[in-house]
Amino acid sequence: MLARPKGEGLTPYQGKKRCFGEYKCPKCKRKWMSGNSWANMGQECIKCHINVYPHKQRKEEEEKEKEKKEKRRKRGRRKEEERRGGEGEGGGKKKRRKRRKRRRKEEEEEEKKKRRTGGGEGGGEEEGRGERRKKRRRRRRRRGQEEEEEEEEEEEEKEEEEEEEEEEEEEEKEKEEEEEEKKKKKKKKKKKKKKKKKKKKKKKECL
Q: Angle CA(8)–CA(10)–CA(12) in degrees, nearest 5?
């Protein structure tokens, strides 16, 4: 076939009977129909005159969809591991909170024992009081840090929940679009069948 002259863009349908579907320009997002002669060759957009390759465009879209699905799977696995509690020290949020509570209890018990003995080795009442004050301050600091960590974890949980909701909405939209496309295809098939039947009837009548 002869090469297309430069500067001339394809019309939306170009008067061809067969068609391989709609393609979108990456710059101006304009859709046009591809005729059978230009199906696997470069097409020029009428508006912005960019050369678009439909078969490459289709592959890129499929790769993007695959990447999205893989990300969703990874997030799902991560959330399941967190719910189960995970393995070892890494564990879920509930396990971390339990560990912190245990550590607090252990520290408090150790402090009580030291108070009973008199505040450490060779310690009188004055030394014991000073150490108690220091330990109280340390405990307050630790509690403050732990509260901040818990607040950060709660914020992270909220963000994750929002992301989950957004993903669910996107999935629902995709499902709806797929269902609409299926319905359109079914309608087209029915129309084609009706046309074929009409043509057969006309031929029989002519004969």
A: 145
